[in-house]
Structure formats: C-alpha cells, structure tokens
Amino acid sequence: MIVKRLSIENFRNIEKMNIEPCDRVNVIYGENAQGKTNTLESIWLCTGCKSFRGTKDKELIRFGEEKAKIELDFFGFDRNQQMKVEIEEKRKVQLNGIQLPSANKSLGEFLAVVFSPTHLSLIKQGPSERRRFLDTAIGQLRPNYASLLTKYNRAVTQRNAILKDVYHHPELLDTLDIWEDSLAAYGERILNYRLSYLEKLKKEVKDIYSGLSCGKEEIGLRYIQDEEKGALCEKKDELLEVLKASRKTDMLTGTTSFGPHRDDIEITINGISARRFGSQGQQRSCALALKLGEASMIKKISTQQPVALLDDVMSELDISRQDYILNHIKDWQVFITCCDPNTILHLKNGKTFQIENGKVI
After folding, report:
1. Tens digit of each residue's pLDDT (9 = 90 or more) over 39-90
2. What topology is assigned to 2-111+304-360 in CATH?
3. pTM attached to this predicted model
4. Delimiting residues of CATH 3.40.50.300 domain(s) in the chain
5. Tens digit of pLDDT for each residue in 90-109?
6. Does domain 123-274 have CATH number 1.10.760.10?
7. How far apart are CA 218 and CA 325, in angstroms?
8. Which of 36, 46, 82, 184 is 20 to 30 Å from the Cα of 252, by its Cα?
9. β partners of residue 220
10. CA angle, 294 as apex, 289 and 296 as ends, to 5°?
11. Can you give the three-state secondary structure of 96-127, one letter per residue?
C-alpha cells in the first residue's frame, strides 16, 4: 500500500491540507497540538476502523463546521484507487466512486497499522491489553475469529451466571456440563488460532527488535495460561478437565478462573520481564516491534504491505533506535510524527512536512 495524495478538510484543527508523500519515510513534525496526530488519524480512518484515539465520529469535525472530508489516493492491490470519507453524524465512504453501504465495508481495502503512545499499555498494563492485541490482529486476517470469540464469551457469561445461582438453585448444576463442553470446544479453537499466530509473529518481532537494539537485546514472546499444568492445556479434553476440577473454587467467586479469557503473553528482554524491569525506551521498543510485527504478518498473509503510522514514536528512544526507524525499515511507506526538529536531521532518504496550526508550512 502506498499513499499517493492526502486531502483533508475541516477535520479536527485542520481547515484544509493537501500533501503528496513519498513512498518511503515521511516525517511530520511541529510543536504539540498543531495537527500532527490529526493527520495520521485521518489516514487511519480510511482503513474503515474507528479512531485510534477512541473519539466519536461527530467529534472529529472542525469546530463550527457541518462536516469533515478526507480524500486518499493510494496504490493497492496492483492498481491506483481513491477513498473518500465524509463525516457528519457518522462516516460515509466512497471507494473508487462507488458509495459503500457503511464505513466498515471498506475494511480490507486500504491497509495500515498504527502505533501511538496508548499502545505502551501492551507492555505496561495487564493481560487484557495483550489478549486484545492478539485477538484484534487475528481478527483482521481471519474474519470468523471475531464470531468465535463472541460465542466463547457468551458461554463464559452463562457459566458465571450458573456458578452464582447454583447454591440457591442446585438443579442448575446439571447445566454446567453443557456450557463447559461449549467452553472447551470454543477454547480449543481460539487457542489454535492464537498459538499459530504467535508462533509466526515471534520471528517477525525478534527480527524487528534486533534491528531496533542493534542486535544487543533479544525480545521473547511466550503464551501463558492462568493456571499452567506443566504444559499448555490446548485440547478440548484438557480444558474440560481443568474446568470441572475448578468448579468448587469458581462457585465461591462466581467467575470462571481458567480459559483463553484469562491467558496472557509474557514479553521479555534478554529473558527478563519487560513489564517489570524494562526501561521506558525498551518498553516503547517492544510495543513498536509488536505493531510492526503485526504489519509484517498482514503482508505475509494478504501479500499487501500495510502503511505504518507511527505517532510520537521517537520519544525516549536513543539515536540508534531512531536511526533504525528512519532509515532501516525497508520497502514500507511510513508516516512518523515528532516534535523535535533535530530528528529530521537523521533522515537519509524521505520527505518532511512541518505542521503549524493545522497547516503545512
């Protein structure tokens, strides 16, 4: 995927903006609150996804205006294409002149991955953030995976409801077998997806992190379960056995204590926990490696290299790590935002845009 032209109108603090980026690294720099992240956000919305900042569509319109417009000319799937996004109460999307029924129908047409400071939660926060990363990444590539997760989570909710009521209604105990059988069956399929994806992701992430650290550090990824039994419980029968064994304890808490909804990814640097002992720069590098690894996986499976949108990625990275991002990410189009104008001095082959008050100057 290559962005050829970006046109923005009445989006956030941007009244009008037109840029023609290069095919490699594009650095968007300027002081805080000038529109750098807004520019990346406008590109991201062309993927069909919601804002990576968690903003409602109508809040994206410039104050005092009725609607915002984004036009993206891009090369993808071996041809030149155009995406038009209009935002009023909700988004309306045209692809190559054809109005789509809804914004999410554009999913998969323009591919991008985004890194923002919020993605540091992948390293710093609890297991739910890492599960969400894994499930979202798999969901982009395997459309039926989201439906599988929904069925699994519904079964967890039903089992939890029974666990809470069983003391008052002992007759419900017999129905636990039904929901536990469903949980184990869905759980086996979820684990198969997750473990397969993670095994392939490991290599991509290790190569990227090695580049970021100039080969001085090694990142490790390991899938872990809430209650490890020596080896991972991957099969339906194994999962079912643990669920039945944990019934008595689960009845006391009213929750299901074991299963894919409680699992985690352990992230290490040279064998040591990145979450507990990693520096700010190391944690940022880990999160970035995961996001760029996700992009590599998209390319391997879809054959299309997604555009990389890296917001405020340079903060807390040393010169060698900045140099890798600016000059050693090969065959990708990259958009990077930063505040420090000295950062662009290290760029060897790319294009720069200075943003001030929502305008390129």
Report:
1. 999 999 999 888 888 788 888 999 999 999 999 999 999 999 999 999 998 8
2. Rossmann fold (3.40.50)
3. 0.85
4. 2-111+304-360
5. 899 999 999 999 888 888 89
6. no
7. 17
8. 184
9. 268
10. 95
11. CCEECCCHHHHCCCCCEEEECHHHHHHHHCCH
